[in-house]
Amino acid sequence: MVEVKTYTIPPTRLIPNSPYKLLHYPGLLLKETESPSAITETVFDRFAQNGWQCQWIARYGPTQISHYHSGAHECMAVISGEGAAIRFGVADTSEDLEESTRGHGFEAGGVTVQAGRGDVFVVPAGVAHKTHFPKPDLPEGEGLRFFSPEKAHELSEADAKRILTDVKVEGEFMMMGAYPVGSAWDFAVGGDHEGRFGDVWNVPKPEKDPVLGLSEEGLKGLWREEEKLGVKTKANL
């Protein structure tokens, strides 16, 4: 039986979040991420067989801007590193990254989850996320490095795989990001869809979970269309 943690995150003033649950599969790909030389190819293939295409690999620095994707559901898999904190569901309210990470420069609410190697997150369109405090620490002055082919969603599976599997995995906290085939992701921040949350909520549900496929243990069983009305009612929208 697969371990899964679920979080229902209602809208905030600035973030649409989603009727669908945020899904966290602790250590689901732990075995697949044991060999640095084969990680990217193994994880890429696992997602591809379920209709999700990897479009980026990121090595994380101390923090980043809280953001969400308005037109695509996202899967993030931790492929390297000891761990990091990921804050879901709230916007930064300060442009000072230090204040929005260690201080009080973010909205109330949301949830902070500790992520480790092998973990998989299925993040519904609209759910804000901010990865910070990665382990091991990077050398002073180094931060986020993002590897993504230009117009990645338009590439063939073979071309995307060739480019991403060339990225070296060397022990820092790193994740791979995948989206349902054909989906294009954007980078939206708090307030970008104020008054238009419904546009984000209507992103179609994928046919398969990125790792569990058609299993009822994955999003097929955990994302129910009837949940949408309940979330909208609670938000008084």
Radius of gyration, Cα only, in angstroms? 17 Å
Number of domains: 1
What's the helix-strand series?
EEHEEEHEEEEHEHHH
- In the sheet with the most strands, the strands line up as 1-2-7-4-10-3-9
Uncertain residue segments: 233-237
Determine the N-to-C terminus distance.
Answer: 37 Å
How are the SSEs placed, and which strands pair?
Blueprint lengths: L4 E3 L14 E4 L13 H10 L3 E8 L14 E7 L2 E6 L8 H6 L8 E5 L4 E4 L5 E7 L9 E3 L9 H8 L9 E7 L16 H5 L17 H4 L4 H8 L3
Antiparallel strand pairs: 1-2, 2-7, 3-9, 3-10, 4-7, 4-10, 5-6, 5-8
Characterise this structure:
This protein is an alpha+beta fold and 237 residues long. The protein has one domain (5-234). The protein has helices at 39-48, 97-102, 157-164, 197-201, 219-222, 227-234; strands spanning 5-7, 22-25, 52-59, 74-80, 83-88, 111-115, 120-123, 129-135, 145-147, 174-180. The chain has a seven-stranded antiparallel beta sheet. The longest helix has 10 residues, at 39-48. The protein is globular, with a radius of gyration of 17 Å. 43% of the residues are buried. The model is unreliable at 233-237 (pLDDT under 50).
